[in-house]
């Protein structure tokens, strides 16, 4: 894969640049209560408080399975403009590197209005297969802490979500996203 990327996408003068593989996706966080299992004694019906407020926001993010690094930004909605801003910020943060980002087939990833920076290559996973993208497990871990919580405002929720995001170390992200088959493929391709 690395040879193909270098041969067809990277000019000879840029072959010294580091190539990084990221897994990217977006996740919605809202005031509607995240439910889950409740443990009770035998014969006691579990009860949990829920709310159905529809206010929400989105976190756009990428994780790097090889190093455990991550990059996230918050947006009010999903569209090509927000995704483009996210890509621009990632591109500028690691301007010296070339980024291969695995993404799903969201319509805004294909939009004719999307401007993908020159140092970013989008790699589309097969349709309807979120389970092949390790960042989905990352979102799941963050949402575990939100189960059965009722937040009155989006600001309260945002504070808790960002605290959860800040808790993750690169080692923890590596253990969540560093699936053997991905790491082996990266090694064989020359990414490591």
Care to describe what's here?
This protein has helices at 2-9, 80-93, 135-144, 154-167, 170-177, 180-189; strands at residues 19-30, 56-63, 70-75, 98-103, 120-124. The chain contains 6 helices and 5 strands; from the N terminus they run αβββαββαααα. It has one domain: Nucleotidyltransferase, domain 5 (2-Layer Sandwich), CATH 3.30.420.10. A 5-stranded mixed β-sheet has the order 3-2-1-4-5, with helices on both faces. The radius of gyration is 19 Å and the shape is globular.
Task: Count every helix, treating DSSP H or I runs of 4 or more residues as helices.
Answer: 6
Q: How does the major sheet shape up? A: 5 strands, mixed
Radius of gyration: 19 Å
Low-confidence stretches: 1-8
Q: List the secondary-structure elements in sequence, H or E.
A: HEEEHEEHHHH
Described by the principal axes of the CA atoms, the overall outline is: globular
**What is the CATH class designation?**
Alpha Beta
First-residue to last-residue Cα separation: 13 Å
Protein traits:
Nucleotidyltransferase, domain 5, 6 helices, 192 residues, 33% helix, alpha/beta
Outline the fold blueprint.
Elements: H1 2-9, E1 19-30, E2 56-63, E3 70-75, H2 80-93, E4 98-103, E5 120-124, H3 135-144, H4 154-167, H5 170-177, H6 180-189
Parallel strand pairs: 1-4, 4-5
Antiparallel strand pairs: 1-2, 2-3
In short:
By secondary structure, this protein is an alpha/beta fold.
């Amino acid at each position: 894969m690395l040879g193909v990327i270098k041969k067809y996408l990277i000019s000879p003068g840029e072959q010294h640049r580091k190539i990084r593989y990221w897994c990217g996706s977006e996740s919605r966080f809202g005031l509607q209560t995240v439910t889950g299992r409740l443990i009770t004694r035998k014969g006691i019906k579990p009860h949990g408080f829920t709310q159905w407020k529809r206010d929400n926001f989105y976190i756009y993010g990428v994780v790097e399975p090889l190093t455990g690094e991550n990059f996230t930004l918050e947006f009010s909605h999903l569209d090509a403009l927000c995704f483009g801003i996210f890509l621009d910020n990632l591109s500028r943060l690691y301007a010296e590197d070339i980024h291969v980002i695995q993404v799903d087939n969201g319509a805004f990833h294909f939009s004719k209005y999307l401007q993908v920076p020159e140092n970013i290559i989008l790699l589309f996973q097969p349709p309807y297969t979120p389970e092949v993208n390790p960042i989905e497990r990352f979102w799941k871990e963050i949402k575990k802490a939100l189960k059965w919580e009722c937040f009155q405002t989006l600001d309260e929720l945002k504070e808790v979500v960002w605290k959860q995001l800040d808790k993750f170390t690169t080692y923890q992200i590596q253990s969540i996203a560093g699936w053997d088959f991905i790491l082996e493929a990266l090694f064989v391709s020359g990414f490591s």
